[in-house]
Amino acid sequence: MISRREFLAIAAASVRLKADPAEERNIGGVRRQPDQQNAGVPVRPDHARQRGRPRGSEFVFARLRYESGDWDYNPKVAANVLDSIVQYTSIPVYKEEVVISASSREIVSFPFVFMTGHKLVRFSSAERENLRIFADAGGLLFSDDCNHDVNGLYAKSFEQEMHVAFPADALAKLPASHPIYRSFFTFSGPPQTSHELVAGHEDEGKRQ
Fold first, then answer.
1. Residue 191 belongs to what domain range?
2. Are the C-beta atoms of residues 90 and 41 closer than 8 Å to each other?
3. 186 assigned to some structural domain
4. What local confidence, expressed as pLDDT, does residue 203 receive?
5. Are residues 106 and 5 in the same domain?
6. Which of 36, 39, 54, 171 lies in disulfide reach of 58, CB 3.0 to 4.6 Å?
7. What confidence score (pLDDT) does residue 3 get?
């Protein structure tokens, strides 16, 4: 298993290797990309970075697009997460959400991938294989059940898919002693909320 820092270094190096200097022309300090030379559209390096080319040192909020379900549910979560990172840490962030397909080999360029939805989850064989490659490289897949129901359709079908993709590594509930609960803020266990949804019904005040 490699560390997050090593993973970022490898990912950044792979991105740099893809750029072929022979395929670019410098004209008056303005860089033209190979696919834009025929159109005659100059792209400045800073502009290109802002349009989907984050630096290797930046945290990127990458959302997983998968063929089944509703992968684009809850569109505000990226802005909320990035705002919290800016407020509470000194980690540089890329300010735009990036969408990456579960079947794309480029998924390994993103150490953190967010997945959400509230419908049935069924990965294709290509999506499942890519997720295995992503996890084996040290990637973190964060799955958010918008139903807030551990017995709901999304949660159950996601767990089934994880068992198929990783048959030797069963999903297990993290114990209260897990370091994740003390890696930044300190919790005695999983953070509690003021409400929860169980089988579609909201019970206010059940958790304090």
1. 175-208
2. no
3. yes
4. 41
5. yes
6. 54
7. 52
**Chunked in runs of 10, what are the mean pLDDT values of the chain (208 residues)?**
49 41 33 34 34 76 94 91 94 94 94 94 95 95 86 92 89 89 87 52 39
pLDDT for the residue 27: 30
37: in domain: no
132 and 145 share one domain: yes
CA dihedral 181, 183, 91, 89 (to 10 degrees): 70
Q: pLDDT value at position 202?
A: 41
Q: Quick check: 111 and 135 in contact, CB under 8 A?
A: no
Classify residue 179 by burial, with Cβ atoms within 10 Å: 0-12, 13-18, 19+: exposed
The verdict on residue 1 lying in a domain is yes
Same domain for 147 and 100, yes or no, is: yes
The count of domains in the chain is 2
Nearest residue to 99 (alpha-carbon basis) of 81, 80, 75: 75
Same-domain pairing of 116 and 63: yes
Contact assessment for residue 154 and residue 69, using Cβ atoms and an 8 Å cutoff: yes
| CATH number (domain holding residue 90) | 3.40.50.12140
Q: Note the pLDDT of residue 143.
A: 94
SS3 116: strand
